[in-house]
User: Which sequence fits this backbone?
């Protein structure tokens, strides 16, 4: 009878934790979807990067918890494998967004540097000696 109570308590705890992770993940995805909708399906890499990094962190935390508690929560191997496969693409997309953000920032910095050089006072031309050499 005690085993049944523990198993029931464990299942309830597992379900609560999974719901907590699911809500965090859904919140991160909703943030990305709102950004996409607001941008007319075009992503601003500087805004997308931290949101995708957050999603990667949430999914990693969720996956680690599932792997750690797989036995305790009686989570089938197939569920764990599907989760790992499903979450594998997120870091790839996050890296693409962050690399694009870094490239855009670098290009803006270079453009700003070129503009400041263009605004710098022109150096006086070197006067060549005149007269007989």
Assistant:
């Amino acid at each position: 009878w005690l085993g049944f109570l523990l198993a029931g308590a464990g299942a309830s705890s597992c379900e609560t934790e999974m719901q907590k992770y699911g809500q965090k993940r859904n919140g991160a995805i909703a943030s990305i979807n709102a950004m996409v909708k607001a941008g007319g399906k075009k992503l601003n890499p500087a805004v997308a990067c931290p949101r995708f990094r957050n999603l990667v962190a949430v999914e990693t935390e969720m996956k680690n918890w599932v792997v750690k508690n797989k036995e305790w929560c009686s989570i089938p191997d197939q569920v764990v494998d599907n989760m790992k496969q499903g979450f594998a693409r997120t870091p790839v997309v996050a890296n693409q967004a962050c690399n694009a953000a870094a490239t855009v920032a670098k290009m803006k910095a270079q453009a700003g540097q070129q503009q400041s050089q263009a605004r710098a006072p022109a150096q006086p031309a070197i006067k060549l000696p005149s007269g007989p050499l």
Observations:
- The longest helix spans residues 2-38.
- The two ends are 113 Å apart (CA to CA).
